[in-house]
Amino acid sequence: MIKKKYLFAVAMTFLFGLGALSSCSDSNSTTEDVSTDSETSDDAVSDSTSTEETFDDWTEATHSKNVDPNFDEVFDDASVMRIDIVMDDTDWNDMQDNLASVLSSTGSSVPGGFPGGAPGGAPGGQTTGETGYVQNTSLDDPDWFSCSVFYNDIEWYHVGVRYKGNSSLQQAYQQGSNKLSFKFNFDKYEDDYPTLKNQRFYGFKKLSLNNNYLDESCMREKVTADLFRKFGLAAPHTRFCVVYVNHGSGAEYYGIYALVEAVDDTVIDTQFDDNDGNLYKPEGDAASFGIDTYEESEFYKKTNEDDADYSDVFALYTALHDSTRITAPDEWKANLETVLDVPVFLKWLAANTVIQNWDTYGNMTHNYYLYNDPTTGLLNWIPWDNNEALNDDNRDLPLDLTSVSDLWPLINYLMDDSDYMATYKADVQAFIDECYNTSTMDSLYDTYSSLLQDYASQENNSNFSSAVSILKQHVSDRATAVSTYLSE
Fold first, then answer.
1. Domain that residue 200 falls in
2. pLDDT in tens, 367-396
3. What is the pTM of this model?
4. Among 106, 117, 321, 398, which lies 20 to 30 A Cα-Cα from 170?
5. Is 283 a domain residue?
């Protein structure tokens, strides 16, 4: 049930068209004089008449930067979070127009394109370039808009929200779905509303809402990220979340999402000892590290953006392709291990191959981060965007990785080395033993199914139960496959 203060805020939005919502003030409330000539730069903030706006829900624990991220509150595995996004109708319509404009550059602006796949075999929204790499059609980021976010009857004010995604965004849009992924930035508009400076959501500046595209179980994103972390890899925390959107006509149920921690926010802050290193999100041919693919502009910096130093990723490219790989393998390995945390990469490769996550390195030139940990001076592999995992697909890499060509040298070259191959095999077995086995996963899937069943029904997801059964069968099948591979 929507509580009274939320209803009051919705009514105020409807009546006055304010980009932010007001509630009854008290002696502890924070106020802000909102002017009609606020600076908006390239972002969209609703115009409003001059008024004294109150931020009654602001507390140190819930809104301030001066607290540690509250993982227990935000990423509770035992419950489903409800998030309400409330926007002025004009802003909402502008947000849809902006998305249509962004997608029009790819030919994806009109629903009814190629939801099942583009001509030529590449998935919808993807192309195969002259280099042989299958790529997503590159999208510009949609614009930010202002919204209010409600959770547990608490409001966060003037939060930046935009659509996110690439092929999943294009394909969902083509199919006419309103269940698209969102990204939040809680202090995006602090220059326009200085009283809200450094607003956080229980200590988190950025969060994503992933729409579980093509996943009728609605579990793959969360389960996969949790498996990576359980196996000792850096990866985002996640939580099941149901989303409602209200832009003036009442709260509309959008379905089950995965709330995902931002790598460029709290992942590197809390999972590494030092968060001052370079963080990259590679996209494009350079993300393959293939021969003659190095292109600085395709290593998108998410930290230290004003520092034009890409020497760390160039050092990895150089070490990987050095001629000593053939002439002096031990020297090649020693040099490679001065720039890349090889054990971390091999652990990720083992786990990722066991769970059959095809939409990343080895098939696609995206969906991972590289973080240069100042403590070690090594680049660390961080997986991202896992909704295609835990799924038997003809694009999955085989456990022996023999079909992986030198287009993907981080796999191909390392697997040509007997020591690295032995480490990979040991990691495959360890992942089955420690993380991905029927005794562990069946119980987990039963628990999550109980949490989500009613929400899936509201989403008219009639295949939810069968999708969960497929996930359980996948665990058993992969245990068999691993046993067969390692006994060969």
1. 4-34+44-112+139-266
2. 999 999 999 999 999 999 999 999 999 899
3. 0.87
4. 398
5. yes
